[in-house]
Amino acid sequence: MIRIQYSKKQTTLNLISGVIWLLNAILQVTMNENPNWLNCFWFLLPAFHLIVYYNQKTKGYLSIDNGIIKQNWLFGKQMKLEEITQIKHASGEYILSSTTERMKIQIPPIHKDSIADLKSELKKLDVKWV
Questions:
Q1: What is this structure's pTM?
Q2: pLDDT tens-digit series, residues 75-120
Q3: CA pseudo-torsion sign 72, 55, 5, 92
Q4: Is residue 110 situated within a structural domain?
Q5: Which residue range forms the structural domain that includes residue 25?
Q6: Pairing label, strands 68-71, 62-65
Q7: Which of 59, 92, 107 is the last residue of a domain?
Q8: In 5, 17, 82, 116, which residue has its Cα 20 to 30 A from 129's Cα atom?
């Protein structure tokens, strides 16, 4: 299995956002003179950021395994490598195309070392580059 990781900047941004929102939530709940159950909603935003951070660190941006390339996020796509007919490199992204679907892979959020791994895996495919 080949795992394409997020850049350190991308993951650190979510961690810092989560911590800042968590501190804000704690302040909102403790400083409020009339606390009620609605104050618990302040903890949803930091929870979201910290879950995204954890997912980015553990699963990475992409994974290539058993002939399938998969985006590792909630609404991420997946494609079989054998079905890819064309790869287009334009404006900071790779666009993988098959006869039935397309997948966009953004390059800026990918770790520099992982970009080389991704390129080498894509070069192994016998497809048309545009």
A1: 0.83
A2: 889 999 999 999 999 889 999 999 999 999 999 999 999 999 999 9
A3: positive
A4: yes
A5: 2-59
A6: antiparallel
A7: 59
A8: 5
Residue 46 within a domain: yes
| Residue found under tokens 């350190």 | 8
> What's the pLDDT tens digit per position in 60-76?
999 999 999 999 988 88
Give 117-126 contacts, CB < 8 A, sequence gap 24+: 117/2, 117/4, 118/4, 118/62, 118/94, 121/2, 121/64, 121/69, 122/87, 122/94, 122/96, 125/81, 125/84, 125/87
Q: 128 — alpha (psi -120 to 50), left (phi > 0) or beta?
A: beta
Same domain assignment for residues 48 and 93: no
How many separate domains does the chain show?
2
Collapse the DSSP code of 89 into the 3-class scheme (helix H, G, I; strand E, B; otherwise coil) and give the result: strand
